[in-house]
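seq:
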Amino acid sequence: MSDQGDEKHFHRLSRRAFLKDSTLFLAGSALLSGDGLLAATEDKPILRLGLITDLHYADKDSRGTRHYRESLTKVAEATKHFREDKPDLLVHVGDLIDSATSLDAEKGYLKRIVKEFSGIPGKHHFVVGNHCVYNLTKPEFLGIVGQERSYYSFDAAGCHFVILDACFRSDGEPYGRKNFKWADANIPPAERDWLRTDLHQTPHKTIVFVHQCLDLIPPFGINSSLGVCKVLEDSGKVLAIIQGHFHLGNYQEIGKLHYCTLSAVVEGSGPENNAYAMMDILPGDVIRITGFRKQKSYRWS
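struct:
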């Protein structure tokens, strides 16, 4: 199974999408560099989130651009930063681990990487990625990370958050035990109906998290993305969609939605190839993402 972040897929967008220029100007605020500098340090966030994705931790040799063992040291750096900045929430946007030769070994990888984050303050939320359930089943993954459901919503500081699960085959079967192809990602009708009801009921502006991409076509995109995105747009409440899976990272504004794909931790050797971010929700529905190392920074409203 391979989902390498190949640049040739960068321009393969959904049928209703267009690619924004890599320099982002929204509401008079420019794209920030990836060095962690803030454009407006005087802004006090309503809520602060730590973000990280695609660690692919495994105790195995590097392959191509993926350096599996180094994810431990990269996570240690991110953990130190998160402890200092004290986010209210920490969201892991999928693919915490890579595949192993046995089920027990894969469970061991997951337990080890989750332990690395255990000292970070705030509630931790885990988005299910395709590599999270390669050998494992979803109940096994959720049991180890200490989470009840693979998709759900919650409120914090007057904001609404939705965790989605696109790890379903086209026939509706959940991923697990090597029963899927990584490019066949879907949010099934039942989950989409739940999402529509959830967004209708909340009075709050909303941030959505999902591992696979809603703004790209397969293989990195979700097959059912058009219907899901219509639900998100129609709600009029979604401030941002935060994604992983496409390891290079990306940003697009399509219609009324902002899609931010975070860069992967596993890609590249050495601390300079780490990637993580702080996300601040500011007054006036402003989103500020401060990227560190190779993660870009953004600000929009």
